[in-house]
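Priority: medium. Attachment 1 of 2:
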């Protein structure tokens, strides 16, 4: 090292890695949880205690990172989806971390019931493994689905939820100030809707003045939305690779 030089510290964006590779993160957690469940069933008392302790520690680690991921992870980019001709906000890492914690906790319970069936024991009256399987499937579905993500399309904005969806055409937004500054990043994106008659609701969507989008910087997302509200000629290019590159290189005014 040259005199006067300082070492370079390499920081790892763990929430970002989890969000970008959520399928791999969940697959890795499931593989490890299954291995620990096998050790618990075949390793005797010592193996059971070691597997239970490690499963608990891994679940606690996932839960510890959850609030930091939800509070601090704020991307300043949108993902291009050329097939749907849309830009989407990145997937949030929080639900993935919760699903990983559920995996480490529930897979050993499922393994216990499976081991009983393999040994020829009767099906339990209250199968905890079956209920754990339902809970684990729900956690995975929520973490891998399009929830908590806003989709920008040539025709407007779409926000899907497990219970419905909200579609807001560009023409429904206030052309002067389509985005209202949020009091806190936790409040998500607040849209100023001046034509509520154009808004389409299906099921039980959230209100348009408070859309939870925890994975993206709200100021950046607000600038992008204002840009397309005030520049309708750019809307047909939404979702294309060329438009994605332009957003990454052009300073979008607030």
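Attachment 2 of 2:
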């Amino acid at each position: 090292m040259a005199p006067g030089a300082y070492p370079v510290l390499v920081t790892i964006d763990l929430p970002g890695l989890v969000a970008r590779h959520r399928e791999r993160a969940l697959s890795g957690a499931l593989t490890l949880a299954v291995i620990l469940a096998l050790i618990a069933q075949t390793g005797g008392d010592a193996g059971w205690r070691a597997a239970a302790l490690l499963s608990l520690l891994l679940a606690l680690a996932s839960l510890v990172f959850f609030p930091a991921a939800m509070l601090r992870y704020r991307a300043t980019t949108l993902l291009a989806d050329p097939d749907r001709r849309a830009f989407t906000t990145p997937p949030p890492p929080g639900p993935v971390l919760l699903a990983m914690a559920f995996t480490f906790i529930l897979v050993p319970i499922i393994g216990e019931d499976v081991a009983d069936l393999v040994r020829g024991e009767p099906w339990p009256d209250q199968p905890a493994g079956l209920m754990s399987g339902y809970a684990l499937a729900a956690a995975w579905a929520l973490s891998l689905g399009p929830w908590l993500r806003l989709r920008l399309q040539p025709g407007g904005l779409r926000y899907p939820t497990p219970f419905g969806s909200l579609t807001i055409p560009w023409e429904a937004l206030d052309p002067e100030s389509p985005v209202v500054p949020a009091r806190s990043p936790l409040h998500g994106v607040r849209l100023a809707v001046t034509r509520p008659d154009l808004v389409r609701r299906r099921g039980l969507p959230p209100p348009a003045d408070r859309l939870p989008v925890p994975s993206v910087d709200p100021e950046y997302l607000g600038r992008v939305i204002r840009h397309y509200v005030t520049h309708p000629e750019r809307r047909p290019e939404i979702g294309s690779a060329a438009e994605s590159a332009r957003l990454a290189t052009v300073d979008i005014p607030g």
